[in-house]
Amino acid sequence: MKRKLTSILAADIVGFSRLVEAAEEATLARQKELRLSVFDPGIKQAGGKIIKSTGDGFLAEFSSVVEAVRFAIAAQEAVRADEESVPQNRQIGYRMGLHIGDVIVDDGDIYGDGVNLAARLEGAAPKGGICISAAVRDKIVGVMDELFADVGELALKNISRPIHAFVWPPDQGGALNSATTPSIGATSQKPTIALAAFEALGNNDDAKMLAEACNHTVEAALANLTGVNLIALDADPDHIATAVFQASGNQVRTTLKLRETSPSATYLTQRMNGDLSDPFLAEDLLSGEIATTIRYGILQRIAERAAETETNDPEAMLNLAGHYMMGSQPEEWEAAGRLLDRILTLQPRNFMAVGMKANTLIGELVWGYRPIRPEDIEASDAGLSKAVSLNDQSDYVHLIRGIFHYGITGDLDAAVRCVERGFEISPQFAQGHMVLGWIQNLMGQPELALKSIKKGSFSLAKNRIYHRVPQALAQTYLVMGDFENAIANANRALQNSPGLPVAQLYLASAAGQAGLPDQGERARDALLASDPDFRISGVRRFHFQDPTRWGAILDGLRAVGLPE
C-alpha cells in the first residue's frame, strides 16, 4: 500500500439536518454557493484538493500545513461574512478539524489514523471555529501559532490516546463541542456535581417532607449556577453531595457531606440547624445554606488544587482567582487580576473572567475606603456591560453590577434591580442577600438590611468570604446608632481578616460617636499604622440617601482625632 505524509482538513456543517428540515432548498442553495465561491477556489489557491464530499461537508488535503491553516481561517471568516444577512437560526456554520499525519493512499482516496483524527478534531471544534492537533501547531510556530488557544488534552471518540489540541478563534476555547469531546482532567471543564437523595432518619414525617423539599430546592439552585454543572448520580460526577436530616421535637439537624469521586474522599462536612415549627422557613434557610455550601465548597476545593501547581487551564485559574477575591487584602485581588488577564488572553469572551476582572478594578469597594481611579471605573463599567451581554443568566455578573451602582454611581434603585435580577436566576444566592443589605442600609432601611445580611450570613458562616458579613453588620449597626454592636462586629471582621481597612474605619467611627476614648484611640492608631497617609477628606464617600448619616460617620472619625 502506498503511504504519504499530508495535511488533512475535515469540514462539516453544524446542525445540517435541522437546517435542511427548516428550509431545504434555501439551505442546499447556500451550501452550493459557498462551495463554489469560497471552498473550491480557496482550496485550489492553497495548493490543496478535495478528496471527497459528504452530504454536509468535505475532506481535503494540502501539501503545506501553513497554507492549509491559512485557507481554513480565511474560509471560516468568509462563511461568517456571507451568512450575516441570514436570520441567525438559519445561518450555515462549519466546524473544521486539521491534522498532519501519515495516511494510506488508494484509488484517489486517503485512509488511516490521520484521517480519523482530523474528523474527530472537526467534531470537537466550536461552530465557526477550527480545532488543530499539536502536530499542526508545531508546524506553524512563528507563523500564526498565536492565533490559536491551547485547550489541553482531549479525549476524542474512538481515539485511544488523549490528543493535545488548539482552537481558533482563541476566544472560542471554552466553546468546544463537549458533547462529542470530553476533556481530560478534572479541571479542564466546569466541575460536575450530583445530588444523592436527601435522607431523613427515624419516622418523623415532617423531617421526611423537609428532606424531600430541600432536595428539590437545592437541585433547582444548582441547575442555575454558571460555575458548576449538575448531572445525574450515575453519570460519573466529579463531586457528590449527600444530606441527612434528623428531627427531635421541632428542631431539625442536617448534616451535609461533599465527596470527590476521584480519588474517593469526603472533604467537607457541615452541620446545620432548623426549626420545624415553620416548615417553609426551615426549607428556605436550610436549602439556601446547603446550596451555598456546595457552591463554595467545590470551588474552594478546586482552587486549593490549582494553587498547588502552575496551571494554564482557564477553569482552574478562574476558580483560583475567585478564591483570592474572597479575601480582603489588596495583594490577593491583584493576584486575581493577573490570573484573569491570563485567562482573557486565551478566552476574551469568557463572561465570568470579564465580570471578575471588572470586579477587581473596583475592589476598593470591598476591602478599602480610598478613591478608585477614574480609568478603572470606566473599564469596570465597560467590562460589566460586556459580561452581561455575553451571559445574561449569571447571578454573579448581575450582583457585581449591583455593587458597581451601590458604590460607584450611587444609583441605589439600579443596584436593587441588578441584585433582584440575580435572585430571579438564583434565589438562594447568599452573597446577593448580603449585598442587598448593604444597599438597603444606604437607602435608610437598616432594619431590612439586618434581615438581608443575616439571611446571607447563615450560608456563609464557614466560607472564606465570611469576613464581609460582620463588616456589613458593623456598617448597619453604625447607621442605626447601635455602637456596641457596631464595635463588636467590626472587631469580629478584624479577627476574621486582620487589618481590614473598612472595619477599622467603622470601629473608629463607632468609638468616636459613642464617646469611648480608649477604644477610639486604639482604633485611630491601628488605622494610621496601616495607612500613615490617612485623611478624612480622602475617604471614598458612601452614597447614603440621607447625607446626615454619612456626616455622622465622618464626625465619629474626627472625634477620635484622625487628621482632616
Task: Write up this protein.
With 564 residues, the protein is an alpha/beta fold. It folds into 3 domains: 2-178, Alpha-Beta Plaits; 192-306, 3-Layer(aba) Sandwich (Rossmann fold); 327-560, Serine Threonine Protein Phosphatase 5, Tetratricopeptide repeat, CATH 1.25.40.10. 53% of the residues lie in helices and 17% in strands. The chain is built from 21 helices and 14 strands. It has helices at 16-22, 24-45, 65-83, 113-124, 134-139, 205-223, 279-307, 314-325, 330-346, 351-361, 364-367, 374-390, 395-409, 412-425, 430-442, 446-460, 468-480, 483-496, 501-514, 517-530, 547-559; strands at 2-13, 48-53, 57-62, 94-106, 109-111, 130-133, 149-154, 163-168, 192-195, 199-200, 229-230, 239-248, 251-261, 264-275. The strands form 2 sheets. Strands 1, 2, 3, 4, 5, 6, 7 and 8 form an 8-stranded mixed β-sheet that branches. Strands 9, 10, 11, 12, 13 and 14 form a 6-stranded mixed β-sheet that branches. Strand 12 (239-248) and strand 13 form a beta hairpin. The longest helix is centred in the middle third of the chain and has 29 residues, at 279-307. The radius of gyration is 28 Å and the shape is elongated. It starts with a strand and ends in a 5-residue tail after the last helix. Residues 179-188 have low confidence and may be disordered. InterPro entries: A/G_cyclase, Adenylyl/Guanylyl_Cyclase_3/4, Nucleotide_cyclase, TPR-like_helical_dom_sf. One of its GO terms (biological process) is cAMP biosynthetic process. This is Adenylate and Guanylate cyclase catalytic domain protein. One of its GO terms (molecular function) is adenylate cyclase activity. Residues 7-122 form the Guanylate cyclase domain.
